[in-house]
Amino acid sequence: MSLPPTSRHRLAGGALALALLTALGIVVSPSGSPSAPDGGRPPVSGIGPLPWPQDGQSAVELEGIGSLGERGGRRPVPIASLTKVMTAYVVLDGHPLRPGEEGPLVEVDRQAAHEVGVGGESTVPVRAGERHSQRRLLELLLIPSGNNVARLLARWDSGGQEAFVAKMRRAAERLGMRDTVYTGASGIEPTTTSTAADQVRLVRAAMKDPVFRAIVATREITVAGLGTITNSNPLLGTPGVLGVKTGSSTPAGGNLLWACEVRIGGTPRLMVGAVLHQRANTTPAEGLRAAVDASRSLLTAVRDGLVSAGTAGRGR
Questions:
Q1: Which of 30-34, 117-121, 284-288 has the lowest mean pLDDT?
Q2: What gap in Å lies between CA 65 and CA 269, rounded to an integer?
Q3: Residue 263 confidence (pLDDT)
Q4: CA separation for the pair 219, 298 (Å, rounded)
Q5: CA distances (Å), 87 to each of 93, 263, 296, in order?
């Protein structure tokens, strides 16, 4: 019986990943290909079983190898401020910056200033008429997670949020994010939904941009009139961690996208992960704590497992 094209591609991809793992001296357990009964596919046996969170969804991928497993299925769930990763991705796609470049100045409009502190949202105190560089606004978008800045960037890029959301959806389609729907630039809308697998796909693409990569790795910035602003991602400072983004709300629970550098055979490789929908419908703070703890456990287990297997060194 001949296999459909999709199945053939999956088999070919699996064979390639297996060949690479074997070449690296990492053995895949016989049960590593199919999904485990609990929905978490067993990864490399040299790493050992991963501590998947019991709540929500999670996924981990390793550059050059592929998926190390998923947990929780692929039912789309609200993602809160993880949305801003796509917002930054679309802005940088339309207005690329070189490393060290500030980009054009953008004037803060009355709407962005009016939204400061409104409705309990995560906002950045900006004033109408102020002019900030594109790079600075991307920092205010991704580091303190300013919802008003997300919508300001959408208006600057596309003239309005609706047109910008159309760009976000087209970008998601190009990236193969088939289970994702964007309805706003900030993530405040619970109708913006995605899956852990789709968000991992987005992080892989976004981390290829050196400006995005530098911003999400920044632990703090100093802004005139605002003082020092600390990154909302508590994983920064963990060995090897390079960012990426937190997101939390009552309907979305706690969410975290992360990227970590590991070394395999002396070669640095990017490991990316997504942990979504932790402790949904409790409080954003409780959900975020759960997402951070789960993410730290996952990345530490893979990194230390690779070290124990003799295939990797710790990230920088």
A1: 30-34
A2: 10
A3: 80
A4: 21
A5: 10, 30, 25
pLDDT over 50 at 17, yes or no: no
Per-residue exposure over 275-298, b if at least 16 CB sit within 10 Å of its own CB, e if not: bbbbbbeeebeebbbbbbbbbbeb
CA 152 from chain center: how many Å?
A: 21
For residues 66 and 228, give the distance between their C-alpha atoms in angstroms, rounded to a whole number.
Answer: 38
- pLDDT, residue 307, reads 64
d(Cα 314, Cα 201) in Å, to the nearest integer?
Answer: 24
SS3 231: coil
E-assigned strand segments in the chain = 57-62, 66-71, 77-78, 105-107, 131-133, 193-194, 220-223, 227-230, 241-249, 253-264, 267-278, 312-313
Task: Name the residue among 196, 197, 221 with its Cα closest to residue 142.
Answer: 221
The separation between CA 7 and the C-alpha centre of its own chain, rounded to angstroms, equals 28
Contact by Cβ (8 Å): 295, 306: no
Average pLDDT of the residues in 159-181: 98
Size of the chain in residues: 316
Could you tell me what percent of the chain has a pLDDT over 90?
70
Phi/psi at 37 (nearest 5 deg)?
Answer: -55, -30
Please answer whether residues 92 and 214 qualify as being in contact, where contact means their C-beta atoms are separated by less than 8 angstroms: no
> What is the SS3 assignment for 86?
helix
Kindly report the pTM of this predicted structure.
0.85
Inter-residue contact 254 to 286 (CB < 8 Å): yes
Q: Are the C-beta atoms of residues 108 and 128 closer than 8 Å to each other?
A: yes
